[in-house]
Every structure is written in structure tokens, then in C-alpha cells.
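Input chain follows. Return C-alpha cells only.
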Amino acid sequence: MHTFPNVTVDAKANVYFDGRVVSHTIIFQDGTKKTLGLIYPGSYHFGTAAPERMEIIAGSCVVTQDDTTDALAVEAGSAFDVAGNHGFTIEVKEGICEYICSFLAD
């Protein structure tokens, strides 16, 4: 189980793709941020500004980074990194994929 003590939560949801991807931002005391979210079945493309680590905490997905055609299957308990100023396509085939996105230092 993932818990984050002593954080501030932004109650306004980040809603993408007509509500098929939804997250909330949490802010730690040191100013760092993470998002906690859900991805419903479908295929979605995202771009990054800063490097990110996507940790899958429930469900599964298939990820293809923009610079490759190699698809990576990611199960709960695993993670993948995306470079800053980059993009990736994430596909959820069934169920709901739950994730924690950490924004990494350059």
C-alpha cells in the first residue's frame, strides 16, 4: 500500500481524454510533486516537460516511447521512465490501470 503522509492535495482533478485518464496532484513539504491517477481502457499519447517515472500500482498497460516501436508491457509493481521533452503512448487493454507519476530532476 502506498501512503504519503504530510502532503497537500490539489482537489481539482487533472482530466484528460474525456475523463478516460484522471489524476490528482500531491505536493510534498519540500515542494516536490507527484500525481496519482487512473487510466481506463484505451490508447493515449502524452508528452513530458520534465523527466517522469510512472509506477503502475494496479492493473497493467503497454507503453511505447516516441523514439521506438518497441512496446513494453508494464504490470502492477513495475515502473518505467520517460525523458523530459519526450512522449509516450500508454495503452490499457482491460480494467483500470492505477499509477503514481513522479517528476524527476533533470
